[in-house]
Amino acid sequence: MGLHHHHAGDGHGHDHDHGALPDGPVPPGYARVLWIALVVNALMFLVEVAAGVAAGSVSLLADAIDFAGDAGNYALSLAVLSLGLVARARAALFKAACMLLFGVLVLARAGWSALAGDVPEPLTMGIVGVLALVANVAVAALLYAYREGDANMRSVWLCTRNDAIGNLAVLLAAVGVFGTGTRWPDLLVAAVMAGLALSAGLAVLRQARRELATGSA
Q1: First to last CA, the chain
Q2: Chief location of this protein (predicted)?
C-alpha cells in the first residue's frame, strides 16, 4: 500500500501503514478488529489528555499523541479498504499536519510548565501510564491474528513496541517526579516524545507529498 514507510532507526512507529492488508481478499473480521482498535485508541487519547491536564503532566499529553496517531492510522486503514492512492495521500497529509501541530503544542506546554508549572501528580501519571500500556498490548493481541507474512507481523510489533516504550517512558517520568519531587523528569520525557512525533509527522508529510505528486501526474 505504500502509505507510510518505516525507518528502523527513527525509533518511532507511526510513519508506516498499520493496516497494510495481506494480499488477496480482506480476511473476515478484519474491519471489526480495526474498529475496536480505533475506538480503544481514541478513548485512550481522551483519557490521557484529561489526565495530563488534571495531573499537570506534560509527558501524559505527549503520550496521547501516540494514541491520536494510531487512531488516525486505523481510521485510514478502514477508509482505504476502498479508496485510491490520491485520497489516501490526502488523508495522510491531514494526519501528518495533526501530529506536527500536537507535537508543537506539547513542546510549547512543556516550555510554559518549565517556567511556571507546578510539580505534576505522579500517582495519576503512573495509573494512566499502566492503563495505556494495557490498552496497547490488548490492541496488538487483537491485530496479531490478522498478520499474514513477516513484513506485516514485523510492522505491527515494531509499532506496538514503540507505543509501549512511550508508555514506559511516562511510568519512568512518574517515578522520577515522585523520587525527585520536581517536574523535570516529566518535562524531559515530554520533550523527547514530542520530538519523535514531529519527526514521524515530517516523514509522513514527505511521503504523502511524493505520492500526491506521482498520483496526480
Answers
A1: 18
A2: membrane
Sign of CA dihedral 124, 126, 131, 136: positive
Q: Return the exposure string of 37-70: e unless at least 16 CB atoms fall within 10 Å of the residue's CB, then b.
A: bbebbbebbebbbebbeebbbbbbbbbbbbbbbb
- What average pLDDT does range 78-85 have in this prediction? 71
The answer to whether 167 touches 137, Cβ cutoff 8 Å, is no
Question: For residue 101, what is its C-alpha cell?
Answer: 501541530
Q: Hey, how many other C-beta atoms are within 10 angstroms of the C-beta on 99?
A: 27
**Amino acid letter, residue 103:** G
Picking from 197, 193, 195, the residue whose alpha carbon sits closest to that of residue 205 is: 197
**Contact partners, residue 100, CB within 8 Å, separation at least 6:** 197, 198, 201, 202, 205
* Model pLDDT for residues 182-216, shown as the tens digit of each residue: 999 999 999 999 888 888 888 888 888 888 888 77
Cβ-based burial of 195 (10 A; exposed 0-12, middle 13-18, buried ≥19):
middle
Give the type of residue at 25: P
Q: What is the pLDDT of residues 103-128, one digit of tens each?
A: 898 899 999 988 887 899 999 999 99
Per-domain boundaries in the chain: 8-216
